[in-house]
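This section describes the prediction task in plain terms. A model, or a person checking by hand, is given the sequence of a single protein chain and must write out its three-dimensional structure as a string of tokens. No templates, partner chains or ligands are provided. The sample shown here is typical of the held-out split.
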Amino acid sequence: MIRICQRNASLHIKGLIKPAIFEGSSIKSAIISVHGINSSRNFASKVNQENELERIYYGPLTPQIKAVKIFSVSSSAAGLAAQPIIIREATTIGSTSLLVALCSVVGFFTFVTPLLLHLITKKYVTEIHYDPKTLTYKATTINFFLASVQLDFKAEDVVVPDIPGMFTTMVAKGKPLFIEARHFTHPLYYAKIMGYDKPLDFKLGVNKDDDDKTS
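The expected answer:
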């Protein structure tokens, strides 16, 4: 009789525990599913924001510039690594002029060449993306370490210099940039950035007679 009661009690306890276990697992699965939905929504929103930006410009020299800069940086690293060996070998010869010449050549190709290349290519715009909601442009350039640098600006932030400098088409927020009109997806984008859609001012100057009359 006691054994029968123990079996009934154990069966009753198992019957109470199993629904609780199943209920807890269902809650956990529900929480996991809700978390998965939220993460998928956040990822989808980020993807949609990136897709909203329209690429309106691409610089065709971007692959060549990256390849040249990679070669320049790698050659500079090799020159720095080999410079102690070159100096040691040059000192064994005992010629001061030869030592100065070798150090000058190695230093030129190690330091001067990458800097000159960066000064020329830092203004080159590789891509321009446009956000139609905020009317904002995102220009991408390449820095010294081959990393992409992005600049956000609007059409009113652009200044077109009267006398453009070397490799300078416009100045956006004080930064000179170089772009080419033929590589835009549509000419209207180039005209909007450069301010060619604004009305022209044909007033060349003010005459002194007009100044005397107004005074």
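For orientation: DSSP finds five helices and seven strands in the chain.
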